[in-house]
Amino acid sequence: MKIGVNLWIWGAPFRTDRHLGLLAKARSMGAETVEFAMEEETVMDTVLMCRALTDEGLECSVVGLFGPPHDLSLHDMSRRAGVEYAKRCIDVTAEIGASVFSGAVVGVGGHEPISPNDYQTRIKHAAESLHTLGVHAQKAGVRMVVEALNRYESHFVNTAAEARVLVDAADHEAIGVHLDTFHMGIEEDHLGDAIRRAGDKLMHIHVSESHRGTPGTGLTPWDQVAQGLRDIGYEGHAVIESVDHTSWLGPLACIWRPLAPSGDDLARNGLQFLRKRLR
Fold it and tell me: Can you give the pTM of this predicted structure?
């Protein structure tokens, strides 16, 4: 398992011409992997990013921002746009030498109930799109993972069990499940059981505190998380995801106050805590 940080801790959007120094900072704090998002304003020089990751000895994952215009389960226009967007993100992931591309690919921002018939139709559409992306990802040497979000951010895939249903329907070895302990704390009965339910399809996890602050300072049952990961022999990335409340993402994530004295404190102390608890 590689333990690391999402660079949102220090702000957004990520730009290689401004923020490459964050990689050395993260490494100095004990990170073994870093993560950034492919936002609309992201400026990515893939050659520089690949070189910097190699120089720092860091692994990397990439997050995509999906929503109704890119929802893989909706109408044909949305699905086509989502597939093309995901393919571009997968290509960038491969070009920088990263191994995982993640996205909450369905139901983001939805607030209407879904009938059983519509649910099955949307699962079918999303699974077909994901299978296509699995073929693309496998050729690129990348895994694509589907993130389950909590009920306030999505009305479709909220639990490990639901994510597993979608990924199994996609039926491609390059497509997996992405869990986040922040969302799990809202939706799951037992975090360890949810991890075991995802099982061999769990290919990425965000190890976030219950309030998205420094891991170890909230209500997340870390013993359950650690045991669940041990039980399935998890060897992927475990990434602290938090957001600088002063960035444009703060209001989007409903973060209205500082979650730690600084991003440096959150990253340093969170990494130290997780190295002790998850290994």
Answer: 0.96
